Amino acid sequence: MVTTIVRNVRRTRVRLVLTALMSLLVGGGVLAQSAPHGTLKVGMESPAKLDPAYASSDSEIAVLNAVYDYLVDVDANNNIQPRLATSWQVSQDGLTYTFELAKNATWHDGSSVTAQDVVYTFDRLRDPALKLPTSDLYSDIASVRATGTHQVTFTLKNTNPFFLYDLSDNHAVIVKKGTTQFGKTFDGSGPFVVQSYSPGDRMVLTANPHYFIAGKPGVAKLELIFFSDQAAEVAALRGGQIDVAMRLPSSLYQSLANVKGITRFDVPTNGFNVLRLRSDRKPGSDPRVIEALKLAVDRKAVTEAVTQGLGVVGNDTPIGPLYKKYYDASAVPPKTDPAKAKQLLKEAGYPNGLKLDLYTPNTGDRPDLAVVLKQQLAKAGFDIHVIVEPESVYYGDNKWLQVDFGITGWGSRPYPQFYLNVMLECGAKWNESHYCNQTFDQLAKEAGKTLDSQKRIEDYHKIQQMLATSGPIVIPYFFPQLGAIRTGFTDFQLKAFAGRTDLAAVHAP
Asked: Which of 167, 29, 25 has its CA nearest to residue 98?
């Protein structure tokens, strides 16, 4: 494992050295490289929380990705890439990770980025006393130490084959030591500097002239323009008021087919919309109600109706086919049977059906999904009242974790263990279904620690079988990431998690 990592790092360092040489040649006047120019206007929903520890929506992550840097990043092919860390070494026992930081990285105020900033960032994210959503994810870190001005060492309690991916988690942007005024001040090290921020309207950023990664950013100005209505966002794209739209619903994406001057992007992902019923209190605490819910949904029909054939049918487990070797195609939920579902509800004490409020955010295909599910569930005796809320309201103050019945969009992650740790383990911070199964937890913990790939595959297969047959969640499909950009802009590469799209790589016409 160490040899492979070092080999990959060496290759990446060669690319970085070549890039640096190009930069030096430019500085000496040998080559002509254009400075950042033009403006990129990106439409997105208004961010609600810009404290990295709490950020979750694509717009929030997009802001963080533009203003700050991750220690390591993940490319469009799910490969770990250097960012603030230029190289790293892993001990033979897999418990110690030592990172070398870019020595020319600076904060927007001009001071140097050091190992102490990395220590501060991860000590905060993992501090159990703060009760942050990230504390579970980083609970296996025994210590983070500055072992040099630009060297930081992580020591783990247990082996973790996905640790580098954990360090690239959406929340893990590196912040300056002592930062507390998150969302009010934006002293990052990233490619863009915040010039102005009008909540609910827009954020205007300019190119960081001292950014340590050569060739970035590609534009002189970045405007993030906030929309509460995605139809209005697409209309703005058509009219030229914005240049980029991401996270598009299937219907709006299809409406842009053959529109002159607009290029569409369709990226397969492991992102999904989950329908879940709280399993820690009535009515979801009755296994018969959970079974009725699973029997009432026709996943193939939902996929066709909501994603217009662009999605991939799901089997009520977050481990989708994009994970290839970990995916178990034989783990399928019970066949759709509304009559049996209705009988189960009667046995559970609901002879006249079960009334439920179904909450959903107003973004993506989720409102359409709620309508289709309402129609399907009605055939099984569920009387559903759909409540559509702005995404900032649904996720604000953790309302999504409190409601009994809800739809939540989970963005694509580069590895499956993330979902098990933060979404489904007993007591996990984002366990919205309030699911708790000791057998599941044991399998998840074993899969997340073992360095034996075959053992991990076996554990993942058992987990998928368990969730498909008796888990409290319904995942009808995995959605693609859909976006569009105005013709003339280059080097735009939409990522599976739209908020992690590298806007600093884009060049204006």
From this structure: 167
Strands 72-74 and 80-82: antiparallel
Domains, the chain, ranges and CATH? 272-478 (3.10.105.10)
Phi, psi of 182 (to 5 degrees): -65, 135
Is the pLDDT confidence value at 176 over 80? yes
**CB burial class (10 A; 0-12, 13-18, 19+) of residue 180?**
exposed
CB of 246 within 8 A of CB of 506?
no
Which helix (H) or strand (E) element contains residue 273?
A: strand 272-277
Identify the residue whose tokens are 């507390």: 180
The full 3-state SS of 396-435, as one line of letters, equals HHHHHHCCCEEEEEECCCCCCHHHHHHHHCCCCCCCCCCC
CA angle 106, 111, 116 (to 5 degrees): 85
Cβ atoms of residues 42 and 222 within 8 Å:
yes
- What region, left, alpha or beta, does residue 319 occupy, with left being phi > 0 and alpha being psi -120 to 50 degrees? beta
In contact, 475 and 318? CB cutoff 8 Å: yes
pLDDT at 115: 98
Whole-model pTM? 0.82
Angle at 33 between CA 28 and CA 35, to 5 degrees: 105
- Tokens 């993942």, residue located: 460
- On the question of pLDDT at 34 being above 50, the answer is yes
Distances in whole angstroms, Cα of residue 22 to Cα of each of 8, 27, 192, 207, 379: 21, 9, 22, 20, 65
Q: How many CA atoms lie within 13 A of 411 on its CB side?
A: 23
